[in-house]
TrEMBL record:
It comes from the Bacteria. Keywords: Membrane, Transmembrane, Transmembrane helix. The chain crosses the membrane at residues 35-59, 71-90, 96-117, 129-147. Coiled coil: none annotated. This is DMT family transporter. The lineage of its organism: Bacteria, Pseudomonadati, Pseudomonadota, Alphaproteobacteria, Hyphomicrobiales.
Amino acid sequence: MIFLYGIALLAGIATAVQPGQSTQLARSFGGEPFAAGLVSMLVGTVTMLAVGLATGRLHLPGLQQVAGTPWWAWGGGVLGAGVILSQLFVAQRIGAATFLGLLVTAGVVTSITLDHFGLEGFATHPASLARLVGGGLMIVGVALVALF
């Protein structure tokens, strides 16, 4: 379990570093954020393919599996593109700490709701007072980071 927490921490670090990389990529491309976003997603796609092939865990779904997929599950790619676009258009303007603070805090507050109602396939975890206070403290924390 500690290994999984370590991976989550590394993903958090990557989330903090990625906006700067995406913005620098856009600058290198003459200020073209959409080209940088496309290249970023292409590199991500190639990485997923390589890791999937290298580990032997890449198994493409059959037509029956594709047809049985909930409609809302197809939105992950759109949301991923939205995150990259927000990095390219917002992060440099508001700063890395404010951007990541808002990103993570919005994610945690939304996740409390997803967990509470068991939405999108997550196991149900009630929005206890402690969880709600934790989300509230994150909101206060990001406000302090943004203001100072």
